[in-house]
Amino acid sequence: MTKGEVKPAMNAESRAVRLYRTMRLIREFEERCLAMSLSGEIVGGIHPYIGQEAVAAGVCAALTKDDVVTSTHRGHGHVLAKGADPKRMLAELCGTTAGLNRGRGGSMHAADVGLGVYGANGIVGAGAPIAAGAAWTFQRHGDGRVAVAFFGDGALSQGVVLEAFNLAALWQLPVVFVCENNGYATSLPLNRSLAGDPVERAAGFGLTARSVDGMDADATADAAAEAVERCREGGGPTFLDCRTYRFNGHHSFEEQFGLNYRDAAEVDDWRTRDPLRTQSTRVDGTTAHAIDAEITTLVDEAVEFARAGRAPEPDEALHHLYADGTTARPGVMI
Fold first, then answer.
1. How far is Cα 234 from Cα 105, in angstroms, rounded to an integer?
2. Does the global pTM surpass 0.85?
């Protein structure tokens, strides 16, 4: 997509279907992953994205394949929404060579550069400067591409995130900062960790900033489309504070250890706003049923594919750690 070229608009019905399908895929994928994690098939556990599907689906609906996203430790939804193959994604979580990154990245570091997924990241907020750097190259090339950085509310005081805000605003970079504000940094409530309001903090750096209902895929998609279009037209960066909620614990280990830091009534209240259920009301019942069946089959196949894979051999342990066949630049001694 060149600068000034507008992504073709989808009519309301087709967008509703696309959003529902993406959200249904993420939900089904995450529920299977959680079960496989608790059974030990996925070693090391996962950070479930269940409840936050509207953010990934809504934001990525505004992007093209050439646009870039950086993700988080809770990143399966972002990778899938950007178009990654569920089979290879699940194989990656299971640590097999058929995975997106040959089983070397796992749950928190899955990437697919060909799709513009510049990596999930286990370091809180670490994707923000990477996205800003990508946006800087897009600006220099003038190609109209956009970068999106996903991060949680726990990253709002991380130095690298604030530095990325500053540079993005200073250089008017085509980057959208998406805060998936689920109210908790692991178990620490936002009101005990952040002084002020997220939107005001971002606006203080000169970013266009707004709050979004992150439990509503339509609202998120509208806000993301506006922000992405502003970037493509040279209008600079945007910060979206997507108010959302994770229905499960921070990590699958919470299911095993029985950690309790949220009131059951609070969780139940948020569950009444289930974004998948809300989106299903915008899709014809027959269509939704067909999508549900399609996704169940797709994830069944992904599970079979992942289970059939093989782990890397011990003698492959150092593969992909170092570049092979590189030639030193003139004047550089190695």
1. 34
2. yes
Query: Residue 114: CB partners within 8 Å, gap ≥ 6?
Result: none
Amino acid making up residue 180: E
Question: Going by DSSP bridges, is the β-strand pair 188-189/184-185 parallel, antiparallel, or unpaired?
Answer: antiparallel
Give the mean pLDDT of 92-103.
Answer: 95
Instruction: Report pLDDT digits (tens) over 283-314.
Output: 999 999 999 999 999 999 999 999 999 998 99
Query: Taken in order 284, 286, 289, 295, is the CA torsion positive or negative?
Result: negative
Phi, psi angles (nearest 5°) of residue 220: -65, -45
Neighbours of 33 (CB within 10 A): 29
The residue written with tokens 């797709």 in the block is 298
The Cα–Cα gap between 302 and 300 comes to 5
CB atoms within 10 A of CB 64: 15
Q: Radius of gyration of the chain from Cα atoms?
A: 20
Q: How high does pLDDT run on average in the chain? A: 93
Q: pLDDT tens, 130-176?
A: 999 999 999 999 999 999 999 999 999 999 999 999 999 999 999 99
Q: What spatial distance separates the first Cα and last Cα of the chain, rounded to whole Å?
A: 40
For residue 306, how many C-alpha atoms fall within 13 Å in the half-sphere facing its CB? 27
CA 314 from chain centre, in angstroms, equals: 31
270 neighbors 245 (Cβ within 8 angstroms): yes
DSSP state of 203: H
